[in-house]
Amino acid sequence: MEHILSKAVGIDLGTTNSAVAVMNRADTDIVLHKETRHTATTPSCLWKDPRSGDLVVGRMAARRAGTAPEPIRSVKRLMGRRTTVRVTDEDMSPEQVSSKILAEMKRQIETDVAAWDSDGASWVVDRAIVTVPAYFDYPAIEATRQAGELAGLEVLDLLHEPTAAACYHCWSTKTTDGTFLVYDLGGGTFDVSVVKCTAGAFEVLGISGNTMLGGDNIDIEMAGRIQEYLIEDGYAFDLDVAGDADDRIRFAQLRLLAEGVKQALSTQDGFMFRDAGTVRDKDGTPVIIDRFVEREEFEAVARPLLTQTLGYCHEAIAVATKEAGITLSEVDQVILAGGSTHIPLVRELVTQELCGPTGARCAAPIYDKVDTIVALGAAVRASATGGLVSQDRGRTVRISFRGTGATGTTRTRVAGKVEALTDGIDLTGGHIRLNTGTYDDEADLGSGGTFAFTRVPIQSGAESLLSFEVFDGAGTPVISTARPVSHSDDLGPDGGDAPGKLPKPFLLEVSRAGKPVRKELLPALTPLPTSARFSFQHPGDTEKVLFPLYQRRRRIQVIEVPVPSTTVRGTEITFFVRVDGRAMITVQGSIGSVEFDARVVDPPERDIPAQAEIDELTARFRDGVQFLKAGDRAVAEEKWDFFLERLEAAVVRGDRVQAVHDFEELEVVVDDLPATEDVLEPPKTEFDELVANCRELNVIVHQVTEGLAIQHDQHDVAKSISAQADHGERAYRNRDQRAYAEAIAQLDAVRHYLAGLYHRSGRGDDTRTESQRTAAYVREVAQSATEVMRLAESRRRKDFQREISEIQRALATLERDADRDPVMVRTRVGQHSQRLRQIRNVLTPKSGDGYAALLPEELV
Ligand code: ADP
Ligand code: MG
């Protein structure tokens, strides 16, 4: 009987390049599809021929770069965004474009599996494991699944690219245990993961990365460099990439040249960069390039971008440390993946930063098959997950064998399931017969058509063919097929299950006292599937309550909870947000005993951020960053500058996707700053103490000045204390450090004023004039400025040093004004004193210097 066989394939759907592989029939080796003798990858590029209307995928499409109409590249960057791209004369969604690429990968690997066809059996490709960056968020993952389905592939699973890379490494080295850091720098994305493999099962412990960082960015920088050369050489190359279509094409041509230079410099220390006529300048003059480019020059261009990646590596390790107590010194291997790791500087930086005595347990990263390692690993996983499926030609019955056909024992287990695909066949009471040539066995079909043979003897160290025949309840044969299996003594892991995890936390936006606040619903790295419960009280006056759902900063979905009009305001409504193993979200809930399904809708796309939004975010960043420790502050500032610069460039180019992405990155930087609430200086207890002290002192002063010729309006002062106390309270609630500090400075001045009155009453032994006392106050603060300065110097805080020396200069001037306007001077000095205290607190967290210490001793 003839049958159709299928094994699941592994596809690396890359931003720049895609690759496809499948394990051979007996799961002993991986078959990687090669388009040409030297290339196993296919550019993820789509072009539509304007004349014939044909869609072209891959290398032929990539060759069209720098001509009009431009081919579509890097569409993966748009996955999950509700946008379209112009393919010559047609608008296509990112998932449609990706589906064309996946269909091409399917076609390619079909040519390889066709070689396995024999008389009775023909091989097809209909199931796949597709890889996605670990940093992909929910909409992007979902779009990838859809793309696979549009391409006619059943997507068995979406595997994280770094897990795939680790999977290949374990398979090829026959390792079953280890902790790996996978550093994957491709054309468009950077991914880093800490992956742990225990007894062949993988677990992702920490992830980080950036979906907008890769070799493309290096090409753009390098193209800018080439543009500079050309301008130096007198060519008209002042391009308006945002506004002028011809200039855009000119720049695209420069990018191609830049990529060539980059790749040449991966294997050579210097490159004779020659080109004649590829590009014409704005005046139409053909450009002639003849220039020697040294690797150092390229490295100077690439270094800032590449250095960025190291921060993410430490971030991933920090997550792994927090999640599983894994530190860098416990990482066994650093595995490189992605075409950009061919750049020698990448390997140098990674070795320096992550390997050796202070780093992972390896002297250098593993640099092996970096272009295809992800597809190879996906193939290993596909064979473990997808098993082997056999159908008869008429597609009436299907047998699915579970797992890999490779085994380390000479007696193996073969299990699976038989299903009828048409109504005409009834498998109830049926059975399955097995024959190995030397051994026969029979098993009944269980419920759902399941079967299992245990301890099937197979040939040692070789490939064997197991034949199966299935019979229905009446004993009529319905299908027969064969499964190749293989035995090898030292088998590595079979790419067993890596539980899926949520790459970024899910947050639900809820309204609290009229203000939207985000509440964490599911933390990052929650194993999937999972669900979270949320309850709220019906706010009334609506039949639909909306809850925006965020994945970190990105609004990914809006949950629409339907509320029947009969529901009484205040009724408790509960819903569950379920996230399945493939990150698919569904929401179900109940109002009392009535259950409902909530709608989950896509939110509108964000626009290019307006300058005002950028300014506001910048102000928040500046406010928050000053409270970080010096080292953390430098890291945050570097990250901020990097994304801000890119954001500004993207805004100029009118590149919405990049701009929104970078803006969201900046929002994450701001979100990651410690909550201003916790860092408002000084702590709230000190503020409360100051208020209490002022009030107390006001009463005391009233008592001791009674009947003396000292003007003290207790009522007036009490009012002003209350007013400042209110200001301070409000500022504290609004996390407004500036207003909070202002209120404290005012209260400080009041306290000084009262302390002065107290002394004048004769209770203190202070016989100085007001200006003398003020001058003394200035000196006292100047003294503390000197101390804080020493502290700042010892901490090497140049920024604070500068600020303190400005304060010192101001204090010197104020001391001279103490005679003329003591009140003004005291207020100003109070402000400086407050700022100094704040700086001191930043430099020595938890310094116990409270306001009480400044009160006249007998009052404390
Ligand atoms: P992706 O995972 O984004 O699809 P790849 O892993 O295929 O990308 O990497 C593509 C990137 O690798 C491109 O930016 C390409 O220029 C770069 N690349 C490929 N080969 C080399 C090389 N020899 N030297 C430097 N960069 C290279
Ligand atoms: Mg890749």
Quick structural summary:
With 860 residues, this protein is of the alpha+beta class.
Please give a structural write-up.
β34 (585-591) and β35 (594-601) form a beta hairpin. The protein folds into five domains: 3-214 and 306-380, ATPase, nucleotide binding domain (Nucleotidyltransferase, domain 5, 2-Layer Sandwich); 387-487, Immunoglobulins (Immunoglobulin-like); 506-599, no CATH class; 611-671; 684-851, no CATH class. α14 runs parallel beside α16. Helix content is 39%, strand content 26%. It is of the alpha+beta class. The protein has 19 helices and 35 strands. An eight-stranded antiparallel beta sheet has the order 29-28-31-32-35-34-33-30, with no helix packed on it. It is globular. Bound molecules: adenosine-5'-diphosphate and magnesium ion (MG). Magnesium ion binds next to loops. Adenosine-5'-diphosphate (ADP) binds next to α5 and α6.
